[in-house]
Amino acid sequence: MKYDHRKQEKKWQKFWEKQQVFRVEDDSEKPKFYCLDMFPYPSGKGLHIGHPRGYTATDVVSHYKRMNGFNVLHPMGWDAFGLPAENYAIKTGTHPRETVVKNVKHFKNQLKSIGLGYDWSREINTTDPDYFKWTQWIFLQMFKKGLAYEDELPINWCPSCKTGLANEEVVKGRCERCDSEVKKKDIRQWVLKITDYADRLLEDLEDLDWPEPIKEMQRNWIGRSEGAKINFKLKETEGEIEVFTTRPDTIFGATFMVLAPEHDLTQEIVSGSLEAENKKEIEKYVKKAHKKSDLERTELSKEKSGVEVKGLKAINPISGEEIPVWIADYVLGYYGYGAIMSVPAHDERDYEMAKKYGLEIRAVIEAEELPFKAEGKVINSNDFNGLSTKLMKEKIIEKLEKIDAGERATNYKLRDWIFSRQRYWGEPIPLIHCDGCGTVPVPEEDLPVTLPEVEKYEPTGTGESPLATIVSWVNVDCPRCGMEAKRETNTMPQWAGSCWYYLRYIDPENEKQLVDPEKEKSFMPVDLYVGGAEHAVLHLLYSRFWHKFLYDLDVASTKEPFKKLKNQGLIMAKDGTKMSKSKGNVVSPDEIVEQYGADVLRLYEMFVGGFEDEVPWDEEGVVGMRRFLEKVWGLKEKVVEKEPDEDLRGLLHRTIRKVTEDIESFKFNTAISSLMILSNEMKSKDKISMEAFTKFLKLLAPFAPHISEELWQKHNDGSVLRSDWPEFDEKLAKKKKVTLVVQVNGKLRDKFEVERGIKKEEAIKLAKKREKVKKGIEGEDIKKEIFVEDKLVNFVT
RNA sequence: GCCGCGGUGCCGGAACUUGGUAUACGGGGCGGACUUAAAAUCCGCUGGGGUUUUACUCCGUGUGGGUUCGAUUCCCACCCGCGGCACCA
Predict the structure, then answer these.
(1) Which end of chain A is more exposed for a tag (fewer CB within 10 A), N or C?
(2) Which of these, A355, A353, A333, A334, lies nearest to A342 by C-alpha position?
């Protein structure tokens, strides 16, 4: 009789829930294992076929760990603030809260239908006031420590989402969400000082068991460079130009200075407080540069442009030389000090600039071709000639420090995190603006600050949040002086809630604390974290930052939140392109569960390829998993109580070893393949021992829990998912006979079976007797006989 | 341009950690059994070429070199694909 997944799967899902098989204990003698998925945004579209790939992997590991005696925390929740629900509200008038409730219900049903073993008693939702109370609380602690500050700088503005964005949300000059071109806009913003943590975020990456590409992306994003800060005094006028350089060793090659159009001195020239002979020309250039978006400024980067500040000279503090000052938009206002010393002989960009405007190019490192960017021997540098550039760096920094014209310095690409959004559906920033007291935090006992009901969710587009129009909500008494004051109307970005959610699963009901310190210590850090790689410099950087802050507050006990990280690869359409609605090639997990069963979906997602690789979805391949399960289903007829099956035992133990090692190293595809080999072998037998079959079911259970449970329950009590993981016996796993390969000059000539552990002399004697081998070595002079135990014999002639 | 990952049958992929039978496992295809028939199921074959055609032989893991008794695996150079970053001083 065929396996009826529709009947069986529902039955066991109910059973597991009733028996609380996946419930984690707060006080347990067992070692803990915290296994975490990146929680989803509950979109209206429901679960994508890619979601279950990561979820099944953590589910497999959770079951495996539980069966190995761990107290496993494997929770799930909802990252439910964000624009889709809000945009839907704008269109239909449905409150985002209602949309979220509906979508969460749908998502949860879908996850349950796949048989994923979450401990639902710990479910959280970032839009729940009892949850975001603590998101606001963390923000307030940052505010109190000076890590959250207000700023009015030109920031990234998405004209379609009508909100400011963080740098991490701008991808190639476009909005990460909607792909619109990002504009510059001057608006008041709340900014988090992530740069204070730059060093720790960089250094602590080293000890993390994370994919190297993700670590590398974070390193590049933080972008630390070591060098020097150097002051160039201005000639015949007050003031100086401060520059950052990684190459102080090339200071004698600095033939001009370049200021960014945003530089303070540039502004002074434009405003007239600093005199320049060609003020008009400069004004024109600066205006043009300011109009360009970042995208344009980089796209048009092929050709350098700039304008000299006529009449202004800077003085090289080391050589005393007077050099001209230019303004050019290839120098960025926000990096370093917004100004550089230009060394055209040893920097490509400076070289292009010098070539275009006929500026002096002076080599100060021995080079055959300019620009020369490598290390070498110093020339044209007065007393310093002949030094290595490495030593030169040290000498120059020494000298700068002595004459008080500069010092050793470190610079970062990382910029502070623009944290406020001019939208409705996010956590309100819990601050109050008072004319008398300034910006005052909402008292902790008044948290959470909840969202008011509004009539229109539409963003104003002026840089003000829609909350600003709700007078009754905005107007409050100042908690400090009691006078009339106004609430901050910006909300937090969608990343806020996910920065610390893994801590809340540990103690989701706690009303007094974010998390109980004892519980926190017993479960942190997250042992395994699984999700998509697209969060490399977003969620995965932000949450590390918040975690380190919470560590400093003694709320978290570990330096890092996520010990081990794995990224699941994308699931593509059959032709290798992205699945998309417009192409009509979107596969729904629901259809697969309905037609083939949850176990088949799980098996296929794990079997289709390497976990971290991008793989195409091929429904024909899904059939193979169903056939495998039918085969397993058929095996039950062959099970007999007592049967030694000697010849199956070796393979069984090799399979136990293989599946165990493969789960540990995330090689689920080969684990399943080894289970198939064992089941094929079992199928070829007339009888299978109960013992072998039971062990096989335990190995299969993490991947295909429903069918395993059904077959297990015929002979056992309690869930197979709560049974002990089988142990393998190395002795039994070893093959008694091995195939010995015979080569002549490295080419395969013959192979034959021998007892394991055969001695060299014996093997060579046997090999020489083989007809095919004889033919190869006949009349030849054997110079060497190579023997590799249990593997091969090679005759070299 | 820089950084990272990858290139293996008709397709998804295995073997690369530790050099030692290349293509496990699954799909597809072909042939056969069962059937009135089809589906499903089961059994067999399935890298390419050559031949005196059933046994042997040569070639074969992106390309070209190297190390080695032996290289998909190690080293060097290059080509192609994918992802990330990109005027970061």
Answers:
(1) N
(2) A353
**A741: enclosing H helix or E strand:** strand A737-744
Whether omega for the bond prior to residue A644 falls within 30 degrees of 0, making it cis, is no
Omega cis (within 30) before A616: no
Instruction: Report the candidate in A719, A722, A725, A780 with the shortest Cα–Cα distance to residue A749.
Output: A780
Specify whether the CB–CB gap between A609 and A566 falls below 8 A.
Answer: no
Between β-strands A784-788 and A792-796, what pairing exists: parallel, antiparallel or unpaired? antiparallel
Q: Which amino acid is at A297?
A: R
Residues with Cβ within 8 Å of A584's Cβ and at least 6 positions away in sequence, in order, are: none
Radius of gyration of chain A (CA): 34
- Per-residue pLDDT tens for A113-137? 999 999 999 999 999 999 999 999 9
Percentage of chain A modeled with pLDDT above 70: 98
Q: Is the CB of A570 under 7 A from strand B?
A: no
Is the bond preceding residue A84 a cis peptide, omega within 30 degrees?
A: no
pLDDT for A548 beyond 90: yes
Residue A460 CA to residue A455 CA, distance in Å, equals 13
ipTM for the predicted complex comes to 0.93
**Residue closest to A11 by CA, chosen among A706, A704, A590, A701:** A706
Give the pTM. 0.93
**What is the number of helices (H) and of strands (E) in chain A?**
26, 31
Q: State the alpha helices, DSSP H only, in A486-583.
A: 501-504, 517-523, 539-552
| A630/B42 CA-to-C1' distance in Å | 13
Quote the CA–CA distance of A587 and A581 in Å, as a whole number. Answer: 10
Q: Is the CB of A173 under 7 A from strand B?
A: no
Nucleic strand B under 7 Å from the C-beta of A676? yes
Half-sphere exposure of A9 (CA within 13 A, CB side): 22
Question: What is the tens place of the pLDDT at every residue in A232-242?
Answer: 999 988 889 99
- Both tokens of residue A397? 């920094």
Q: What mean pLDDT is reported for chain A?
A: 91
Looking at strand B, which nucleotides approach a protein CB closer than 7 A? 3-5, 11-15, 20-22, 24-28, 41-43, 56-58, 69-71, 82-89
Instruction: Tell me if residue A198 falls in helix, strand or coil.
Output: helix
Task: State whether the beta carbon of A393 lies below 7 angstroms from any atom of strand B.
Answer: no
Query: Is A741 within 7 A of strand B by CB distance?
Result: yes
Strand B and A739 CB separated by under 7 Å:
yes
